[in-house]
Amino acid sequence: MAYENMFLKLYSLIVLPRVALTGSFYGDLIDNMLSESRYENKVRPYFYEKKPLNITTRLVVIAADDINVNAMDFKLELRLAMTWQDYRLKHNHSHHLMLGGDLAHRVWIPDVYVVNAKEINGHKTTEDNEIMIIYNNGTVYYSLRLSIRASCHVDLHMFPWDTQKCSLIIQSYSWASNDIRFYWHNDGQQGASYVQSLKERPMAQYDLNEFILRAEQLRNFQDGSDENLWSSLEALFSFRRLNGFYLIQILAPSNFLVILSWVSFLINPDHAPARVFLGTSCVLTMAAIQNYINMSLPKVSYIKIIDVYSLSCYFFVVLVMAEYALVLLLNDRVRKEKIFKEENKIPTVTNKRIQRISSFCKFWPQLKLCIHGNPFCMHIPVHAGRTVDKTCIILFPVVYIIFNIGFWTHVGTSIDEVNIESTKEFFL
C-alpha cells in the first residue's frame, strides 16, 4: 500500500504536469507562429525576396448538374485544394498542424477566383467545409468545398447529337505571374482521378467524353492595362449528350406519324372525311412535336440538325395531304369529262369568248378549249386517282428510306468529325 501511494504521488507530481504542458504546447505553438510580430498574413510568401510563389492546384469533382442550355451555364460541386511553400510557417513539432475556421484565415491564402463563374457558394454544416494543414517544413495545404455555376458556350447545331465543351478558369485576382504561378497537380492519370465520380455516375443527359487540364499565361484587362501576364489554369470538360430520350420521345413518334400518314393511300378517295381527318391529325401532331422541341431549347438563329429531321417529317406528312388534293382534282376532271360526253356539250372554236383570246394562244388550240372549260383538252383516265395512290404508296416509302439513309449517314460523319476535332478554346 505504501508503494502504491508513493507511485500515485510521483505520477501526480511528474506525469500529469507534462501531459498538461503537451496539451497546451499545440495551442501555444500556433499562437506564437501566427503572432503579428512574427507573421504578416497580408503579405504573400517570398514577397520581400521578389520571387514568384508556385502554387500546385488540384480539384476533385464530386458531382455535376446537367448543362442549362437556356442559361448557357453548368454547375459543379467540387473540392479545390492548393499547396504552396511558406517558409515563415516552419515549426519543430513532430506532427503537422491542422487549422480550421478562424485559425485558417490567420494564414495568408491565395486570392483565387474563377474567371467565368456566375455564382460560387461555399459549403457549411456545423462549420465551414475547409481545412488547412501546415507541415514542419512550411508547406501549406489548403482545401475547401465549393459549388460553382459557370458560364458555358453552347453550340446546338448537332442537337441532340451535340458535344458541349465547358471550362473552369482559375487565376489570382490581384497577383500577376511575376508574383504567383499556378500549376496543376500531376496525378499520373492525365487528370482522370480529378473527375472519377463523373465517370462512375454520369449525369441525366450528359456523359463526360473528355477532360483536359491546361496551364496558360494570359493577359488580364481588369486593371485597364495589358502589361502583365496572369497565370491561369483551365479545366475543360467535354460533355457528350445522351440522346436516348430524344430518340424515344421525338424521333420515333415522328417516324410513326410519317408511316401512319401513308395509310391514307389505302383509303378510298371518296371517303373524304376519313382521309382528311387522318392527314390533319398527323400534321397537327407533327407541329406539336416541333413546338415541344423548340420550347425546351433557346431561340437560336441557326438551324439545328433535329430541325432538319422534324421539318422533313413534317413535309412528308403535308405531302400526303397535297397528294390527296391532287387525287380529288383528277377525280373531279374525270367526272366532268363524263358529264360532257353524256350531254354532248363540246364547244366549238368559233365561240366568241375563245375568239377574244385567240390572239394570246395561237399555237395552242387545245388551250382554247381548256380556257373555255372543256375537259377534253387533256384526257384523264378513269382510274387516274387510284393510280396515283398506288404509285405513292410505293414512291413515298422509297423516298423516305433514301432520305433516312442520307440523314443518318450525315449524322454519323458529323459526329466523327466532332470527336476528332481539336478542342476549341472558349474563354482562353
How do you describe this structure in short?
The protein is an alpha+beta fold.
Structure description:
The structure is a single chain. A hairpin with a 4-residue loop joins strand 6 and strand 7. The protein has 428 residues and is an alpha+beta fold. 39% of the residues lie in helices and 23% in strands. The C terminus is likely disordered. Helix 4 packs antiparallel against helix 5 and helix 5 packs antiparallel against helix 8.
Would you spell out the secondary-structure blueprint of this structure?
Blueprint: H1 2-33, E1 53-64, E2 73-85, E3 97-99, E4 112-114, E5 117-122, E6 130-134, E7 139-151, E8 163-172, E9 180-184, H2 196-200, E10 206-219, E11 229-241, H3 244-261, H4 272-295, H5 305-343, H6 352-356, H7 365-372, H8 384-420
Parallel strand pairs: 1-9
Antiparallel strand pairs: 1-2, 2-7, 3-6, 4-8, 5-7, 6-7, 8-11, 10-11
Helix pairs in contact: 3-4, 3-5, 4-5, 5-8
- Backbone shape: rod-shaped
Rounded to an integer in angstroms, the radius of gyration calculated over CA atoms is 39 Å
Figure out the total of helices: 8
Give the strand content.
Answer: 15-25%
Low-confidence parts: 7-23, 353-364, 422-428
| Helix-strand category | alpha+beta
Oligomerization state of this entry? single chain
N- to C-terminal distance: 80 Å
Q: Sheet with the most strands?
A: 7 strands, mixed
- Helix content range: 25-40%
Count of DSSP strands: 11
The average pLDDT value, as a whole number, equals 79
SSE string, helices as H and strands as E? HEEEEEEEEEHEEHHHHHH
